[in-house]
């Protein structure tokens, strides 16, 4: 009995058309997951900003309810009553939370499909394939 050289070990593995399709599908889900993670992080940061804004609006409520506040809509700031600003902020948070849940669901789906493909590919190729993130 002898140890196989690394080149000999890899040379014995034949990649079928179905194997290549599985590898391509794994790669597709991996890229999708990466984009979803970036989007998820951006949405979480935006939610933190809205939470901070909620705190600021609550503090303003203690001072003067009649005062107008500057509220950012897109690239512009508009003057709104405190109540209108709080309503907009509340609606924006609800929409953002729904978007975060959708992204999280898509991420979970992609991870589930990647795990299934990992099992198939590792069973076929063993240590000759690396599907883990660095």
Gyration radius, rounded: 25 Å
Main sheet attributes: strand count, strand direction, barrel closure: 2 strands, antiparallel
Q: Please give the domain count.
A: 1
Helix percent reads over 70%
Number of helices: 3
Roughly how many Å apart are the termini?
Answer: 34 Å
Q: How would you state the average pLDDT, rounded?
A: 88
CATH class: Mainly Alpha
Outline the low-pLDDT stretches: none
N-to-C SSE series?
HHEEH
How would you describe this structure to a colleague?
The chain is mostly helical and 134 residues long. The chain has one domain: Helix Hairpins (Orthogonal Bundle). The protein is 72% helix and 9% strand. Strands 1-2 form a two-stranded antiparallel sheet. Strand 1 and strand 2 form a beta hairpin. Helix 2 runs antiparallel to helix 3. The chain is rod-shaped. The two termini are 34 Å apart. The model has no long low-confidence stretch (mean pLDDT 88). InterPro entries: PFD_beta-like, PFDN4, Prefoldin.
Produce a short descriptive summary.
The protein is mainly α and 134 residues long.
Itemize the secondary structure elements and their pairings.
Elements: H1 6-11, H2 17-63, E1 68-73, E2 76-81, H3 82-125
Antiparallel strand pairs: 1-2
Helix pairs in contact: 2-3
């Amino acid at each position: 009995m002898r140890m196989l050289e690394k080149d000999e070990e890899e040379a014995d593995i034949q990649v079928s058309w179905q194997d290549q399709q599985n590898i391509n599908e794994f790669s597709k889900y991996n890229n999708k997951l990466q984009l979803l993670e970036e989007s998820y992080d951006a949405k979480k940061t935006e939610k933190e900003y809205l939470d901070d804004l909620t705190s600021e609006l609550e503090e303003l409520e203690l001072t003067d309810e009649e005062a107008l506040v500057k509220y950012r809509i897109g690239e512009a700031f508009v003057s709104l009553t405190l109540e209108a600003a709080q309503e907009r902020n509340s609606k924006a948070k609800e929409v953002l939370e729904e978007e975060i849940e959708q992204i999280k669901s898509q991420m979970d789906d992609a991870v589930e499909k990647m795990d299934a493909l990992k099992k198939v590919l590792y069973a076929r190729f063993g240590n000759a394939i690396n599907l883990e993130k660095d």
